[in-house]
Design brief:
Blueprint: H1 2-24, E1 31-33, E2 38-40, H2 65-68, E3 71-72, H3 74-78, E4 82-83, E5 86-96, E6 99-109, E7 126-130, E8 136-144, H4 200-217, E9 229-234, E10 238-244, E11 251-257, H5 265-274, E12 281-287, H6 297-303, E13 317-323, E14 328-334, E15 341-350, E16 353-354, H7 357-361, H8 363-372, H9 400-407, E17 411-415, H10 419-431, E18 440-444, H11 449-457, E19 461-464, H12 471-489, E20 495-500, E21 503-505, H13 509-516, H14 519-522, E22 526-530, E23 547-550, E24 558-561, H15 562-571, H16 584-591, E25 597-601, E26 606-608, H17 617-624, H18 645-658, E27 660-662, E28 679-687, H19 698-706, E29 721-727, E30 730-738, H20 760-775, H21 787-804
Parallel strand pairs: 3-15, 17-18, 17-20, 18-19, 22-25, 27-28, 28-30
Antiparallel strand pairs: 1-15, 2-14, 4-16, 5-6, 5-15, 6-9, 7-8, 10-11, 10-12, 12-13, 13-14, 20-24, 21-26, 22-24, 23-25, 29-30
């Protein structure tokens, strides 16, 4: 052992000499790579949208000394009343064409002085690299242990594995609520479960009781884990986000954003970045490729201090380590090439944390703080300055009749392991006027402990549903079990409201549902009430008081009746045929709804903000990201009784007959006249049937596309009539003739529009307009950027900044 330690010291001495020798040749700072790279290590300057981090030459493999002179997490983050100690942390990032690895090593140096300059023990300084498979290999990349997790130094058996949950009754201090929802587990499981179904009362009692026991042992927080290192490896392609607790040096959020795809995923990265609270240590790295999809998020990253985010090429390899709301620690980039890219640095972190007497004496505040020590991207829940009151105060009530109609309606939240999304969704639900919070039940699929702990904090009832399989087949079975659970446990309810974990509700959501849900019983030609608008896209949604009806599937935030649930369960297979859909909502639309329709608002009452397994990135950006959402409550609705089918058909026929006729190509300029008074227009396009008697939608596709309306399916049409609100005063009815029941209203002197009859110039004009509507300002950025241009740009910006100073 002694010889080994001496040999290691000699090796370290040789390594240090080697590093400083290379520094004399002015290598790129703080990075190893196989191709030329631009690199920057900040001098701990404050970040601002205009500021660009100053480049400083640093020896390869040697942490900047300034990083060891200051402890992050105190002055930069949370200076105040509390307790803390200092820990030296080594961060190593490897990224390349085949994946990326993050390694964190901690040297626990518990001292009362948070400014103590800790140095890593020599025995811990062993170079570690990662090959493409994530295994250890030779080469100096960062600080770490070849063996991975190091056992505790104090002889204990503690590791970073979560402690078993304590048992016992819920403490008297817990926010009590009389459960209004049965938590029976469903009978007759169709698939044998692999794990125990979790009951929320039992779990939350154990969770909160365990927190009480923990608080008696350690006050105010368990700040430091005895495990000195951690690794994360990913092969997924895109931008990889790591969020690291600035006090425990634990990875508390890891997610890959496939930004090699141009559309929509940038918004998901932006959503997560905005919900990382101030003071967290953040690592962003490109795995394989993915910089071209940063889009608008690049501006957010630049405002947080990134020098390179606005200048990355399509195949750039990029690493950035920074404190959210604070300093850039290190940032490196290879603009073009497929070489591996290494970054390693070290810095002091402090376990300092603010703990007020109020928080220390409040069980829920204490539990929240402990929860937040292990979770990232939770938004205001984990704010150390403006954390919300737990449980949430009661939301405002609506009128007595609406509240009565909603009283017996269960609100089912389908959720899994995306607790960041779930918190955002539940926040909007619990704050929405008219919600009966005791009626909320989360039914969890792939439940994680963090998801269940979050629900305990928010006082939301939950249970678990166990399904086998993978991907969409598993989801298909999961939703069948959700429906089965609801039908068995709420037999006396008129209907049930369903929301996914990534759906934000409008303040008017429950008001809208309360006013319309009775129509499910009054009109048998309806099967659902959608809070999401089937036609309310940007520029086409204007009047929040208007309600429409059409053929459409259940969408994000809907209500269906219990008889319909029973009808669906009687037809719902465990294993659908290979040729059939595995999307449960589409399956209901195809096989169960028949000719029935749904009601939905002109302006949506829900917003689908998440990116999931089945999210189409292009459609999300083209249609859904920019959809308007009603932001007020208790909106009066027009003509609810006229939504009953006979009255609706009669009114629609009257409006079509009195509408102004439009002719010519729907993509030509000034196709729809500008009006200042409410005006109806009608446009007839050719719709015939195929050999099987089904309508041919070719002309509908081009007509709807020209107006930037939904054109990819027949959803949103009532008897093959699409209602498009192109302005607050303009309504256009698109009628397929002669196939539509309203096609006969087309004057005999008018020939329905046909795409195949266009002249060459009209055809070219139509294609160009649709191309512009579909692609917008599509552009891959920085195609001509190289290292010389980048360094010149950064140098000029630096000179301007110094001149202004």
């Amino acid at each position: 052992m002694g010889c080994t330690r001496i040999s290691l010291k000699v090796w370290l001495l040789v390594f240090a000499i080697h590093c400083y020798t290379r520094a004399a040749a002015s290598p790129p700072p703080n990075t190893r790579h196989k191709t030329p790279a631009a690199s920057v290590v900040s001098n701990l300057q404050d970040s601002s949208p205009e500021a660009v981090t100053e480049a400083a030459a640093m020896p390869v493999g040697v942490p900047p000394a300034s990083h060891l002179d200051k402890s992050y997490g105190e002055d930069d983050v949370t200076r105040g009343t509390g307790r803390g100690s200092t820990v030296l942390v080594g961060v190593a990032v490897w990224s390349g064409w085949h994946g990326s690895t993050l390694r964190i090593h901690r040297w626990n140096n518990r001292r009362n002085n948070v400014h103590a300059r800790a140095r890593p023990p020599e025995a811990d300084l062993e170079p570690v690299s990662r090959d493409d498979n994530g295994s250890s290999s030779g080469g100096v990349v960062g600080y770490g242990k070849r063996a991975g997790v190091q056992p505790p130094q104090d002889g204990s058996s503690r590791t970073n594995e979560p402690a078993p949950l304590a048992t016992g009754n819920s403490p008297s201090g817990r926010h009590q609520a009389t459960p209004a929802i049965s938590r029976k587990t469903p009978h007759g499981q169709l698939i044998k479960p692999k794990m125990k179904v979790v009951d929320s009362e039992e779990f939350c009692s154990a969770y909160l009781r365990g927190a009480v026991d923990t608080r008696k042992e350690v006050a105010p927080l368990r700040l430091m884990n005895d495990t000195p290192s951690s690794d994360k490896f990913t092969r997924d392609k895109g931008v990889v986000l790591y969020v690291i607790n600035q006090r425990t040096a634990q990875i508390i959020l890891h997610k890959v954003f496939p930004l090699g795809e141009y559309w929509a995923h940038w918004a998901d990265l932006q959503w997560h970045i905005q919900r990382i609270h101030t003071g967290r240590l953040v690592v962003l790295t490109v795995s394989s490729y993915g910089a071209s999809g940063l889009r608008k998020t690049a501006n957010i990253l630049a405002s947080l201090g990134s020098a390179f985010a606005l200048h990355l090429t399509m195949y750039a390899q990029w690493n950035w380590v920074f404190i959210k709301g604070g300093k850039t620690i290190s940032e490196t980039v290879i603009l073009n090439g497929k070489g591996s890219h290494h970054l390693h640095t070290a810095l002091h972190l402090t376990t300092w944390v603010k703990v007020s007497k109020e928080q220390e004496n409040s069980l829920l505040s204490y539990v929240r703080l402990n929860f937040c020590e292990k979770q990232g991207g939770m938004g205001d829940l984990c704010s150390e300055e403006n954390a919300p009151q737990l449980p949430f105060p009661p939301s405002p009530s609506l009128d007595e009749a609406t509240m009565k109609d909603l009283a017996g309606i269960p609100i089912i939240i389908t959720a899994g392991n995306r607790h960041q999304y779930l918190y955002y969704t539940l926040t909007s639900i619990l704050k929405a006027p008219g919600v009966h919070s005791q009626n909320i039940l989360a039914i969890l699929g792939d439940a994680t402990e963090a998801t269940m702990q979050l629900l305990c904090l928010l006082n939301v009832n939950f249970t678990t549903i166990l399904s086998e399989g993978e991907g969409n087949r598993k989801l298909f079975r999961y939703y069948r079990k959700v429906y089965d659970f609801v039908y068995r446990n709420f037999p006396n309810s008129v209907a049930a409201i369903f929301l996914d974990e990534d759906v934000k509700v409008s303040p008017d959501f429950f008001s809208f549902m309360g006013k319309t849900i009775r129509l499910l019983k009054e009109d048998p030609t309806l099967y659902c009430i959608n809070g999401f608008s089937a036609t309310g896209f940007s520029g086409l949604a204007h009047d929040p008081c208007v309600v429409l009806r059409a053929r459409v599937q259940v969408e994000w935030g809907y209500a269906i009746s219990l008889p319909f649930i029973k009808e669906a369960l009687n037809q719902w297979p465990l294993n659908p045929e290979e040729s059939d859909t595995l999307f449960y909502d589409e399956w209901l639309y195809r096989h169960v709804s028949g000719k029935r329709e749904c009601l939905f608002p002109e302006v949506s009452r829900t917003n689908h903000f998440g990116m999931g397994t089945n999210t189409n990135a292009y459609n999300t950006e083209a249609y859904f990201l920019s959809m308007p959402l009603v932001n007020i409550s208790n909106v009066p609705l027009k003509g609810l009784d006229s939504l009953i089918l006979p009255q609706y058909n009669s009114e629609l026929k009257r409006r079509i007959l009195t509408a102004t006729l439009l002719t010519g190509s729907p993509c030509r300029q000034n196709f729809i006249p500008i009006t200042t008074q409410p005006t109806d227009f009608v446009f007839y396009y050719s719709m015939t049937k195929d050999d099987n008697g089904n309508p041919i939608f070719l002309n509908f596709f081009y007509t709807a596309k020209c107006l930037n309306a939904w054109a990819l399916s027949d959803q949103g049409l009532h008897d093959l009539v699409l209602t498009v609100k192109t302005s607050p005063t303009t309504t256009v009815f698109l009628v397929g003739a002669p196939y539509s029941p309203y096609g006969h209203l087309c004057p005999t002197s008018v020939k329905p529009w046909n795409f195949n009859s266009l002249q060459d110039q009209e055809h070219e004009e139509l294609i160009e307009k649709i191309k512009h509507l579909e692609l917008g300002n599509y552009k891959i950025p920085n195609t001509s950027m190289n290292a010389d241009n980048l360094m010149e740009m950064l140098s000029n910006n630096n000179k301007k900044q110094k001149t202004q100073t």
